[in-house]
Design brief:
Helix content: 40-55%
Number of helices: 19
CATH architecture of the domain at 33-107 and 357-400: 2-Layer Sandwich
Radius of gyration: 23 Å
Cofactor: heme
Family: Belongs to the cytochrome P450 family.
Pfam families: p450
Binding site for heme: 428
Oligomer: single chain
Keywords: Heme, Iron, Metal-binding, Monooxygenase, Oxidoreductase, Signal
CATH topology of the domain at 33-107 and 357-400: Uridine Diphospho-n-acetylenolpyruvylglucosamine Reductase, domain 2
Shape: globular
Length: 482
């Protein structure tokens, strides 16, 4: 964003925000608790630029820890124009995930791009209704039906984009793969011009989600809004077509997400979700199922390139599975249960490089926590790295050790310490879907290819999700026997 525009916006907003923040900084009449320590900084800007700079320089964990060292596990600051309380530690995570007085909170830019009736915006009964509808599609009984389709998408992608190439850039390829998988399972959208057009719009949509929400022609936010409008029209059209197919008996509840959501009715037989809610839910699911899984698989590729022991153990696990199947036979639900070591590797990657650095909640009433008051309307910010990299919770946290997750969860860690998927009533409903997608992809990658990193510098930045240097270019070699 142009700096002069930022200054102009600051000048316009300064008097109003100063008044609001001054009022918000005072505890409400009658409360005996006090505000957390810390400073709200400059109006509008607060500590936002400092955090964003730290994320892009891959020093955000140190930035957060510096605040903890200075103020303790509870402190106040201002992020993205709103007074905020930073909460850290397992007890704080549990409070954030389970408190009924905290609602989901996203930047206004995200809300405008994804819609007003999405899972991340709703509260109370509406939130439970939408979440229940998505959970219906994402439960194991439904997902086991889709393993073969995911298998086919992965194999076609590797044949088209990896096989025969001397070098590839991993992150953009993983993003396209996860987009293809989820657009097939969500919308029944097969390969072709319509899927390619939606993929192009989706890229512009993502670019503006965390931008300053200024709707001017030259801004990323403006481009993102236009892309969002086009994507929403496509999804609305698919919704109407799917509804007609269901009425003609040409589709069933298990065809895809849209069909599943359209098939849900209440006690009187009326649809549970409106078309707007289906479109908004599809937008959120498309993003949630796209970025996080592609980042996880990219960082798995990055890690095993320099960890031959881990790679060898993964190859052995997947070779044994392949030997038990017929030539060319697709993976099945039962095969995924045998990929225990690979999933432990994935969980350890998620501990060390969580795709979601942190997230926001909003106080719906005055709340007391640990002797401090969080005023109604303030944001609450939690981060994964504080507990993930705490030596008191995970021994030698900087060491890669998949055995921490031998039983699928860290045995010695207190509850709400490993929070890569969040926790509580709002734990990621797509966790099992991400597991299937990751395991199927890694099965074919480690059996079909060898690779080595082409960047000498092994680092990454967050913007806001982690991205390896240059998208992780690798030198690729096919294994001729596979």
């Amino acid at each position: 964003m142009d700096f002069s525009l930022l200054l102009a916006l600051t000048a316009i907003a300064l008097p109003v925000l100063l008044h609001l923040l001054t009022r918000a900084n005072k505890p409400r009449h009658g409360t005996r608790a006090k505000l957390p320590p810390g400073s709200l900084g400059l109006p509008l800007i607060g500590q936002s630029l400092g955090l964003l700079r730290a994320m892009r320089a891959n020093t955000a964990e140190r930035w957060i820890q510096g605040r903890v060292d200075r103020y303790g596990p509870v402190s106040k600051l201002s992020l993205f124009g709103a007074p905020t309380v930073l909460l850290t530690g397992p007890a704080a995570n549990k409070f954030v995930f389970f408190s009924g007085a905290l609602a989901m909170q996203q930047p206004r830019s995200v809300q405008r791009i994804l819609g007003e009736r999405s899972l991340i915006e709703l509260t109370g009964a509406d939130q439970r209704r939408i979440r229940g509808a998505l959970t219906e599609f994402l439960k194991p009984d439904m997902l086991r039906l889709y393993v073969g389709r995911i298998d086919g998408e992965v194999r076609r992608h590797l044949d088209a984009e990896w096989a025969g190439r001397g070098a590839v850039t991993v992150l953009p390829l993983m993003k396209r793969l996860t987009f293809d998988i989820i657009s097939s399972l969500l919308f029944g959208l097969e390969r072709g011009a319509a899927r390619d057009a939606l993929a192009a719009d989706f890229k512009h949509l993502i670019d503006g989600m965390w931008a300053v929400p200024v709707d001017l022609p030259f801004t990323a936010f403006h481009r993102s809004l236009r892309a969002s409008a086009r994507a929403r029209r496509v999804i609305a059209g698919i919704t109407r077509e799917t509804k007609a197919r269901l009425e003609r008996g040409e589709a069933s509840r298990s065809s895809d997400l849209i069909a599943c959501l359209l098939s849900l009715t209440d006690g009187s037989g009326a649809p549970q979700l409106s078309e707007e809610e289906i479109v908004d839910s599809s937008m959120v699911t498309l993003i949630a199922g796209h970025d996080t899984s592609s980042i996880l698989m990219t960082f798995m590729v990055r890690h095993v390139a320099s960890d031959p022991d881990t790679l060898a153990a993964m190859v052995q696990e997947h070779d044994e599975i392949a030997e038990s199947k017929g030539d060319g036979e697709a993976l099945a639900w039962e095969d995924l249960a045998k990929m225990k070591f690979t999933w432990r590797v994935a969980l350890e990657i998620l501990r060390m490089v969580p795709p979601i650095f942190g997230n926001f909640r909003r106080a719906t009433q005055d709340i007391e926590y640990d002797g401090y008051v969080i005023p109604k309307g303030w944001q609450v910010f939690w981060t994964a790295s504080v507990t993930h990299m705490d030596a008191a919770i995970f021994h030698e946290p900087a060491k890669f050790d998949p055995s921490r997750f031998k039983d699928g969860s860290p045995a010695t860690a207190p509850p709400c310490s490993f929070v890569a998927f969040g926790g509580g009533p709002r734990i990621c409903p797509g966790m099992e879907f991400a597991r299937i997608e990751t395991l199927v992809t890694m099965h074919y990658l480690v059996r079909r290819f060898r690779w080595k990193l082409l960047c000498k510098e092994d680092t990454f930045a967050r913007d806001p999700m982690p991205s390896p240097l240059h998208g992780l270019p690798i030198q690729l070699e096919s294994k001729s026997s596979h």
